[in-house]
Write a structure and sequence with these properties.
By secondary structure, the protein is of the alpha+beta class. Helix content is 31%, strand content 29%. The structure holds flavin mononucleotide.
Length: 241
């Protein structure tokens, strides 16, 4: 057990740097211990009534999250791994979820783009705190062709196009000023040329082979319903929380 009373003061009675660091560590732990999840009422979920396929349930939960005021319910964590198996996770936006899968856009040359080229498997996680709900998706990712990728980008906002035009995602940036110059030029071009091509911007579609729905419960009887793709459809199972 670390002893936090050890070096609280120097020989002259003034607090030492070690004491200050310890106080900060303790305050941080107190902060974490004081934080709570799911302070409000949680929605009900009856797995016995769940549909035979995960897509309608996913769409329903996303809609309910939006209606419940969950901020940015269409953002998700995307996990990939490189050729050596080293994982990375980051947030991206969901562009669509349909029979083909879960759609998102990014640069082919980014870290995640390179990961997916080496190993086209990925996992997604959505967390909708106000509903105590989490959805996990895992599957194989396919890159859409240039035309579909461009069409998806050009349906989005000027800001999305400007960001895509900046490009060079995940490369080392020399200075903030360099970023501002590139972004200003990209915004100007995106405003003037709404169909400007952003060749590295790619739409990806994750075809799920596993989708898990987690409904939190105040008494910790969390419900987990998992769908696994089979030859002809999906099989469903409950999992211990
Ligand atoms: C709310 C939010 C939404 C984001 N959406 C996207 C996105 O749709 N596509 C994207 O490439 N990056 C998006 N990003 C940035 C990524 O999280 C990440 O920083 C970037 O894609 C580089 O990741 P990588 O180096 O692992 O490839 C978003 C970030 C946040 C916080």
């Amino acid at each position: 057990m670390p002893d936090h009373t050890d070096d609280t003061a120097g020989t002259d009675g003034t607090p030492t740097a070690g004491a200050a660091a310890d106080a900060e560590t303790l305050a941080f732990r107190d902060l974490l211990r004081g934080l709570r999840v799911w302070t409000g009422e949680l929605p009900s979920f009856d797995p016995a009534q769940a549909p035979a396929e995960p897509l309608p349930l996913f769409r329903q939960w996303l809609r309910e999250a939006a209606e419940a005021g969950v901020p940015e319910p269409h953002t998700m964590s995307l996990a990939t791994a490189d050729a050596a198996g080293d994982p990375s996770v980051r947030i991206v936006m969901l562009h669509d979820a349909d029979e083909r899968g879960w759609h998102f856009g990014t640069h082919r040359g980014s870290r995640k783009g390179r990961d997916l080229a080496a190993r086209p498997r990925a996992a997604l996680a959505f967390y909708w705190a106000a509903a105590g709900r989490q959805v996990r998706v895992r599957g194989t990712v396919t890159a859409a062709g240039p035309e579909e990728s461009a069409a998806d980008l050009h349906r989005r906002s000027t800001g999305a196009l400007a960001a895509a035009l900046v490009g060079r995602q995940s490369e080392v940036l020399g200075s903030v000023a360099e970023l501002h110059r590139a972004a200003d030029a990209a915004w100007e071009r995106a405003g003037r040329e709404p169909d400007a091509p952003a060749p590295s911007w790619t739409l990806y579609v994750l075809r799920a082979d596993e989708v898990e729905f987690f409904q939190g419960d105040h008494r910790r009887r969390h419900l987990r319903l998992t769908y696994r793709r089979t030859d002809g459809g999906w099989e469903r199972e409950l999992l211990w929380p």
